[in-house]
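Dig into these lines:

——
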Amino acid sequence: MCLIVFGYKVSEEYPLVLAANRDEFYRRPTLPMQFWEDSPDLLAGKDLEQGGTWLGIHRNGMFAALTNYRNPAALKPNAPTRGEIIIDFLNSKKSPEEFIHDFRSNAMSYNGFNLIFGNVDHLFWFTSLTNKIEKITPGIHGLSNRFLNTPWPKVESGKKAMKNAMTDTLTPDHLFSFLKDSSVPDDDRLPETGVGLEWERILSPLFIESETYGTRSSTTMMVDQKGSMKITERTYFHGQGLEYRDCNFFIPV
């Protein structure tokens, strides 16, 4: 993912509400969200180039979502794919703390990343940049390609929109509506991440569109008090005639 916005223990009806955009090159082959044949309890999309995923959910209520840490000067060309981390965690059946305890010594072999993972009762953030795990406190949170709640314009806009959405009768359409925001902030509000001004502009909206790279899919997840999960993945078809297609899933307690 390149943007994850979520409300944690804010809504009484849905203690966890998540909305996320995945941005990627249009040419990169991808499978939409589905239960995997070789891991039938795992619900996730699949990157066919490297075999990993960006957001995954297990039937036991655990989930994980990952963003890259944007720093092109520090890229390791032969690093393993970060998308495998989600699969390893969800298939491990370990608690988040146990998983990170075992994983921590290997974290630096990957390119920089952030991981939001856990369940509605115990939610955590881990970043390979500090190699630390932090328990997430109740509130509205946002994560892009820096740290949790780094006040980039897209993160701040997403958090504000999530807060507003949760005051209404919450539906996935409320969440998809703000995830489609393609407004570009003024240059003086843009971060400097080493990609140059043109790309900072391209990457700055919640919903990204360019000739070669953009928002490929959006995902919403609403977890109720019992722990049942409603998930919708909306896949966009850039320049292919069809605007989008939704896949809906329900995982009961």
Q: What stands out?
A: The first strand starts at residue 3 and ends at 8.
